[in-house]
Amino acid sequence: MTLPKLQSIILQVLLVAIIMIGAVGFYVTSSLATADATSNVVEPDELAQWGLPLDLGREEVEVYCSACHSLRLVAQQGLTKGDWDELFDWMVEEQEMEEMPAEDRNLVLNYLSKHRGIDRKLKKN
Ligand code: HEC
For ligand 1, is residue 74 a contact (CB within 6 Å)? Predict the structure, then answer.
């Protein structure tokens, strides 16, 4: 066997090895990518689409305001802070809603007047 021939065999073996490593690598990364894609499914945030984006106080809105009706009803409203406050009173006095603890009521009030204020139609929700 001449030296150049040996060199070319070694080159071919190397080439095959590189292709195989590449194929295995591709398989591994692509299967990892698939596993990743299924384990990190991002739920479309339905509430945000309705105009109730994730923010301080939204959790409280979900807790207190979804007991009797859909949050859609809440999302449809656009009120001033004062009117939201009155609406809570109305909800408590007329709709048998339990009074929210002051701290939570404030969070809900601030959240709704920020995201469901009267200027809501100007925002792109
Ligand atoms: C105990 C049950 C109850 C809870 C809790 C409750 N609601 Fe209601 N809500 C009602 C009822 C019943 C109505 C429908 C009243 C009607 O249309 O006669 C209503 C209607 C509404 C409306 C529509 C008002 C309108 O003018 O049509 C809004 C807005 C609303 N609620 C917001 C809220 C918010 C914000 C919260 C949380 C702070 C909340 N609700 C919690 C019972 C509740």
Answer: yes
